[in-house]
Amino acid sequence: MVKDQKRWRLLKDLKKGKFCFLIGVDDWSIELQKSEFNSLYLLLLRINEQLLVIKDELMDEESITLELEQLPWYIHLEGKKNEWSLRFVFESQDQTRSFEMYWPIPIAQNLFYEIKNMWESMD
Question: Which molecular function terms from Gene Ontology are attached (predicted)?
Answer without folding.
Answer: DNA binding
